């Protein structure tokens, strides 16, 4: 375990080096110029560092500005208390799309310093998946009106499309795209993918996009391959009955010894064995001219005696040729698809408690602003955890310990511990 003063210095160094990469000063300020007591950049910085330190509400963010050590407050430009009402008013006014820009800026900076290089794969892989947050309010723009049953309380659902670079060690959230209230996750795929390409198309950040069966359509496949010259890996289910039936006909009959590759994970006293089966016999089937490879992933859960306790088969369609990846890499890509759930969504819900503590409940627009800044805080921490940290033990550090380390650094770092850090922040807090 690192000495507290050393850990404080490391966490302060992370905030000092990485927060400027977000370019928060470039976010358009929606406030009237008259009466501004705080620079927009500093207020957004307060929200981001408070989230990273585990704050679960605006009131806790306000308390964080009171608890900050003088050294950290000066470094961050927060030299007096910031009222929670000040933060709330800003978050409810600001254009959510403006808050996607800092997320993109941090990803571009990480890409420039080679922090997003693929691990175990020859190219980048992006996974997209929807995330819902229930609210006791709706506006029919950012939050869709939903009433579970007659006479029950109003429920609004705020939805975003999470885009995760699952090929990178850090599994960063490269975008969080709001899903308008008038549509749903599947109807939003085309717009979200075009937005993702408009943001990162020139970077060659990824070559393959993966999605569950809901987006598996010829129209979406054409969009990915023909319009944007990328590749897809879509799950196959009943939404594509012909493809699914053909996949089963070619692959369901294959025995375990015919698997192209397998993996085994020890889970408690048991294990999970996964096998991948591949075929190109369905290439170009019907109108799917870009279809090349179809996969079957067999998952078998065994207890400590080797007795099967669960069994499942999943099928996937891909536009990549079978030889574009090794069998083990195909298995890796399919498993990495769940990185958007296991790494991003799980962290948002269990560590930051996004569903239970959205910070703002009466304004979906304000809630969305917090959601986007939470993704920024996640990226700062996951890039530190998985890339900056050098040893395997440190890269496996529990998220709760990492959040606690940020909190400790904010409240106890001294001027002496900040000595020799390169100055990156203004000395004054007011606008």
Characterization of this structure:
The protein is an alpha+beta fold and about 425 residues long. Among the domains are: about 5-95 and about 360-420, no CATH class; about 225-325, no CATH class. Helix content is about 40%, strand content about 20%. It contains 14 helices and ten strands. Strands 1, 2, 3, 4, 5, 6, 7, 8, 9 and 10 form a ten-stranded mixed β-sheet that branches. A hairpin with a 7-residue loop joins strand 3 (about 155-165) and strand 4. Helix 1 (about 5-20) crosses helix 14 (about 400-410), helix 2 (about 40-50) packs across helix 12 and helix 3 (about 60-65) packs across helix 5. The longest helix has 25 residues, at about 365-390. The protein starts with a helix and ends in a 19-residue tail after the last helix. About 45% of the residues are buried. Mean pLDDT is about 90; it is low at about 425-430.
